[in-house]
Amino acid sequence: MTPPRTPLPRVSTALRPSASAPARRPPRRRKARLWVRPNSVPFFWRMIDDGEKRPSLPPPHLFDLWITVLASRGIPYQLAGRGNKLRLYVPALLERQARAELEAMRAESRKPRPVAAEPPARNNAHWVLALLLLLILWHGVRMHWFSLPGLPRLDPEEWTRLGALDVFRVRVFGEWYRCVTALTLHADSRHLFGNVLFGAPFLILLCRRVGLGLGVFLVLLAGTFGNVLNTLYRQSAHISLGFSTALFGTVGALSGFMALQGWDKRDGAGKLSWRRGVLLLAAGTGILAMLGTEGENTDYAAHLFGLLSGFIVGGAASWLSRRTGIPSRRTEILFGLAAVGLLAVCWRLAL
Fold this sequence. Notes:
Blueprint: E1 45-47, H1 60-72, E2 78-80, E3 87-91, H2 95-109, H3 125-142, H4 156-163, E4 165-166, H5 167-173, H6 178-181, H7 189-210, H8 212-233, E5 239-240, H9 244-259, H10 269-291, H11 300-324, H12 329-350
């Protein structure tokens, strides 16, 4: 006789875990991150910043800037913590002043940088190159490459004797026109083409800013004053010639014009233009140190005096242009004619 079967207990399917659905984990409890005040900081000191809302903590280099500002104002501070726990503290009585200084620094850093007012540029590079070509043609006339009607046919040594900067003849006989005529003479073709290649970029930049006529007049004036100073500095037996004094005067005139272009402005553009001009003058001094003192026959004093004279002449031109306005087309023509007339009169006196 078979025993009776006992019925199995029914298990509810709702309680069975599903094989496809993952088991749910209990949510994690968020731990409250507590920031502990360092024991090295006095209790009555307050934590400060510059008041700017940031998504993350300030970078470490910003703390260096903050403590520099506080130290310059004589505000005591204490920097505590490391990494992302770095904090800045000041006394409670100086908290308002410290925050004001940091906020002023933040507002100052957001100001736009001043931009120096640029005069309208003049596209006259082709005319500058044409003038340099005339200087080369004049050298060809001296060297008998070809002749021009109306000019005496003299030997190159005779041209040098008549127009070179002879310190003895200038001081004793008063032949100051040699300070101008010496700028148009060169010892040889290598001397000529070296000056043309070196001075062409600076001369183009100067004439682009001030105009062709005024630029040529400033270059001639700077070279003349440079030769005058060189005459007063040198011994009586010194003789020099070449356009290099005027070319260094071009660098000085360009830097002087840029330096004094906006120096009287209060929005910071004056300081910017002054820095640009002084930087260009320093570049010209570096070029003088590299190229202007090479060779036994190089007149380094004339180059230096030309650079300084150009800076003074360019600064004066910048001051006059701010007072009277940008030179007009007629004024540029008058300055150009004055430069040509000065050369013609000086050579007339030499011949």
